[in-house]
Amino acid sequence: MQLAVVGLNQSSAPLSVRERVSLAPERAGGLLARLPAGLTEGFILSTCNRTEIYAVVAHAASGARQLAEFFARSHGLAVTELEPHLYTHVQAAAARHLFRVTSGLDSMVLGEDQIVAQVKSALHQAQEAGSLGPWLHRLGSAALAASKRVRADTGLARSPVSVMSVALDAAHAELESLEHRRVVVVGAGRTADAVVRLCLSRAPSAAITVVNRTPERARELAARCGVEAAPWAALPELLSAADLLVTAVSALSPVVLKDDLARALPTGRQLIVLDLSVPRAVDPAAATIPGLTIHDVDALQERAVANRRRREGEVAAAEAIIAECTERFSEWWRAREVAPAIRRLRARADSIRDSEQQRALARLPGLTSNDQLIVREMADRLINKLLHQPMTNLKQYPDGANLATALDRLFAPTES
Question: DSSP label at 297?
Fold first, then answer.
């Protein structure tokens, strides 16, 4: 069995590509339920900056190719359309990649603190879909443990940051302050909740209104955070008075249209838009409207680079932790992979030992019980010493699975 991941992120693909393969949580479970034959376990990690599929495959090269084709086909695309933007990792490299992702080392915002919850959610979705088997369950647990160590033992967790915090930094710079500003948040999920709370922590006097296509969810979020809620139909009126619009929704096409924004911006008015949605929730064509400034997740890259420079001194220590965790996981994978062959070999050796002991003792009727014990102990020591090095090598060698196959063919062991 081999571990493989296929995906794309903010470094490998522009937003115009990423939004075509972004997955809402409710869709991920449906795809996992349709994993093709040969992909025995799988989970999908989809955030504003990445979409990745992790799976257990029979063979690295062919399995990774099958995974890439499934990835593309699931979004109605030809694999050739995505290939220039896809990356593929197998075995230890795949584990290392997830460990780096979960620790915030592969994020647009270095050390961002939202990814851990997103990884946990992806694992939960796979569990619900029945596609999180023992291999990927251990991988996910190891990734979360690696992230915990990185955040505890390095400075990456100091002054936690996220895409939301970088976005609000951009809005603060353009508006000079968020205090007493009128803010409209479109969405009512986890990201919208985080945006509202972060905005209030920075500017308690900001007048925040939550709008969502499901009004009950907007009211629930507003009640939790102590802000206002408004029906979807009120959005155009709210835009005409807003200083800042933040979108955090899951939609296949824009929900804030150019015409609505144009009507909300008479000459001389300014509106800052933070579009944190992937796919984008604000019509990109609206960028031509005078007085309107749109920051989508790719437009925040420059500010993220500045944040990265401030934290780069912590990267070496974090990478050392990731390397150690990757090796420990690889050792576990190798040991689990060869465990059946070791059990078969041990059973065969014990069976031979027992039959030869009985044969020898039957031919030596005059032995005392102490003498018989010595014979048995000698046979046990012989077997243990003969098997110790092969078993150790099977667990430690990177090609242990191939050695296990050879072992089965050489000794033809069978379960006792």
Answer: T
196 three-state secondary structure: helix
pLDDT in tens, 301-355: 777 776 667 677 788 999 999 999 999 999 888 888 777 777 888 888 888 898 8
List beta partners, residue 43.
Answer: 54
Domain 2-159+314-330 has CATH 3.30.460.30: yes
3-state secondary structure of 115: helix
Residue intervals of the chain classified under CATH 3.30.460.30 are 2-159+314-330
d(CA 414, CA 402): 18
- In this structure, the dihedral spanned by the alpha carbons of residues 202, 293, 233 and 196, taken in order and rounded to 10 degrees, is -20
Across 90-94, 242-246, 338-342, 393-397, least confident range:
393-397
Q: Is residue 325 among the annotated active site residues? A: no
What region does 261 belong to: left with phi over 0, alpha with psi -120 to 50, or beta? alpha
Q: Which amino acid is at 140?
A: G
Q: Is 403 exposed, middle or buried (0-12, 13-18, 19+ CB in 10 A)?
A: middle
Which of 48, 199, 225, 325 is an active site residue? 48
What pTM value is reported for the model?
Answer: 0.76
